[in-house]
């Protein structure tokens, strides 16, 4: 049997699995995927990897007693075995008071995140893409370390009420660090696409090279509050912490930034600058994502923050039922609207500031204010009178993405970026921010 | 009651024009927490100008050299001895940067070598409005990576007749409070509260 099933094949298999079920309710999830990667360091390829995986998960319920079992063998005996096992576990399980039954059939939007060019990548193609990058680094006597990884596959689900969902997708992520020979300069780039033909490893490598060469001989300047220009790669690792906090239950229970005193949430409050709009849209052509969430709920175009105001929070089906709200699922993609400023223009209009190309090692200091800490890295530059003057030593920062989005000066055009913390892809603009707090210096390059 | 004016001292050596958003942030806190009437605009006075003597509270900071001219030194001394209050804050974060060293020398020259003394962390300054049981609140700029990594766990002062005339901090509260006051609502704990204490002490002690 193929690893990656077509919609019809998946439907047939899941129908068969459900035919074995004797539980009150049954839900079956399946996934199949192929992954490949090429890793290089010190200008040489060090690892070439591939992975083929398929997995089937059965969830059986008797009333509010639920059991889950998984298997990766798909012959009839194995399929029946996994269903029986899930049922045995359900009978043994204590009641889950928060269990809600399976969904009836749903309507889903059309979204296309599966691209043949990505699915057809072979080790040779990976090697060729990496060779071009390596060549550029070697030619300039720089040291490159990078990772090219791609995957394609599908997920499907079916339940005993007749719901069926299927979504195939593909993705390629490329990341690269380039260092100068003496180790004093470092540059980074990351790119992610559904479509491999959009990945230009040469253009990406040139960016990392330029940052590596430009960041050697960094000078120390005093920590403090500076106007910063955050490239999307730097901005996204802070912004995604807002997205992680969108859960209504933790807001209602007083556990998150979106909580307010008296058991209220910030739904409907203006929390950031009016130019900030953040939403989910699975049909976005640049960032397509699954039109259904893991439990089968449809993904719709959903505003999280519109013109600075909190418009929606996510609700589990249990919490939605309990509070009488719509069960808005967690986002499968996140998009932030931008503005018209180019990066050059942002630099030109900065009297005194810092260009931040990457932030890393992000950790939470205070969940109630989403206060985060982390460091700049791989190229940080001082701007004076509208020009990049010199590279500066890296900083530790203490900043909340909420405060940051209140101190907005300008926004550029959104770009597809890869979070260096989670590997998630987002659409995020570069941004110019006032009063960004750098608290100390770092010796890291 | 005349409105409180946040007065900043301009001196000829070094730089004095720091932390530009800080005064309005502190004034906002005064309005929020106290009934002290305030003038919304920061006033800048030259240390050599007699205008200095009209302000009961002055702020002075910088990164660089502090070396008063003869007239500046005379004004500073007379202002403090006549009941004025100066809050001096080193805008560098490290413990013995140029401002700190030269300011302490300047105070020794002006008021005598032992005039500037540590004040205990149970000084009324820490309880005159909000309570700070452990002395001066720490700032995010401490443990600063410049190599000293020292937390300044006390403040220094020059006492005149049992009252602080010069309050000296090398904790860099100026930078800590240098943000748009509208962002205060996003902090778990408003970090400008100690600023309210300093001004309350200056006006009432």
From TrEMBL, chain A:
Residues 27-90 form the Metalloprotease TldD/E N-terminal domain. One of its GO terms (molecular function) is metallopeptidase activity. Pfam families: PmbA_TldD_1st, PmbA_TldD_2nd, PmbA_TldD_3rd. Residues 141-212 form the Metalloprotease TldD/E central domain. Residues 223-439 form the Metalloprotease TldD/E C-terminal domain. This is TldD/PmbA family protein. One of its GO terms (biological process) is proteolysis. Belongs to the peptidase U62 family. Signal peptide: none annotated.
From TrEMBL, chain B:
Residues 6-203 form the DUF4159 domain. Gene3D superfamilies: Domain of unknown function DUF4159. This is DUF4159 domain-containing protein. It comes from Spirosoma aureum. InterPro entries: DUF4159. It comes from the Bacteria.
